[in-house]
Design a protein that fits this description.
Number of strands: 7
Radius of gyration: 23 Å
Strand content: 15-25%
Order of helices and strands: HHHHHHHHHHHEEHEEEEHE
Number of helices: 13
Distance between the termini: 51 Å
């Protein structure tokens, strides 16, 4: 058996594992298959004769390809960002069976949180926490130290854990009120806004429900429903970054105060998870 045939057989043996790695990194079976195919093209042109750990070598190749795909995906979203950021589409291409498999392996909260992580955070978390790859090996892929890689995974893990603990908030009455307010604002529905506001509501320097409703009618075109530090709120997201966070104070089922924070340093430190409007289950 020549080296090419030997390498082809070894790759076939590891193909299931490589597809699993790519799928959990990319969230789409189609994208995962593309990554594995690209990996084989690279492997078939490489000299594997002196590779001591073939499985680790193949995993590294697939992970690097996935990292490039994640970075390209992120760049496309930033370049095409308009009034609203594009909805994540990779997961929607998967079948219910694929969704169940991914949820079982990485956790339901991760299905949404993954798309809010940077490519490096995503790769560090999935490779270490799901597949047990060492931080040293992951650091080689990312060109970072093991300590820096550990921090990436830790930061991603906190996001996932925070999203899981905030699941009740995502389905709360306040979430419904914020979502209804954003819909009424986008539609310019003055009467619906009045119904949601306390008579003495305050927003920015505006006082009184009628004045606040008049100000927001037709304005919230770019605002997205989100959890901000685990609490239902709204975010204006532009070119891959939050530009404003809108928070709501609710008492007795009515909005009593609305605040808008645009300070970049504070926004950077806040934990933001975008929500799909009208979807009470997926966060």
């Amino acid at each position: 058996m020549d080296e090419q045939d030997w390498l082809s057989e070894r790759f076939a043996e590891h193909r299931g594992h490589l597809h699993a790695v790519a799928y959990r990194l990319l969230g789409s079976p189609g994208a995962a298959e593309d990554a594995v195919q690209e990996a084989w093209l690279r492997v078939s042109r490489a000299d594997a004769g002196e590779v001591a750990n073939l499985a680790g070598w193949l995993t590294t190749i697939v992970a690097r390809i996935c990292l490039n795909m994640l970075e390209a995906r992120r760049a496309r979203r930033e370049d095409s960002a308009g009034a609203l950021p594009p909805e994540p589409d990779a997961r929607r291409a998967a079948s219910p069976e694929d969704e169940a498999l991914l949820a079982d392996s990485v956790g339901v909260a991760l299905l949404v949180v993954l798309d809010t992580l940077t490519p490096a955070e995503r790769l560090a978390f999935v490779l270490h926490d799901v597949f047990g790859v060492s931080f040293g090996e992951i650091g080689t892929i990312l060109d970072r130290s093991p300590a820096a890689t550990r921090q990436l995974a830790s930061r991603a893990r906190r996001r996932v854990q925070g999203a899981a603990s905030a699941s009740d908030a995502a389905r709360s009455a306040k979430r419904d009120i914020v979502e209804a307010f954003l819909a009424a604002s986008r539609n310019g529905d003055f009467e619906a806004l009045l119904e949601l506001l306390d008579p003495n509501a305050v927003a920015l320097e505006i006082h009184g429900a009628e004045a606040v409703a008049a100000f927001f009618a037709g304005r919230a075109q770019a605002a997205r429903l989100a959890l901000v530090d685990g609490v239902p709120a709204a975010v204006w997201w532009h070119r891959g970054r939050p530009k404003a966070v809108i928070t709501f104070t609710v008492s007795a089922g009515k909005i009593t105060a609305i605040t808008v924070d645009t300070e970049p340093r504070r926004l950077h430190d806040r934990d933001i998870v975008l929500l799909h409007a009208g979807d009470q289950e997926r966060r």
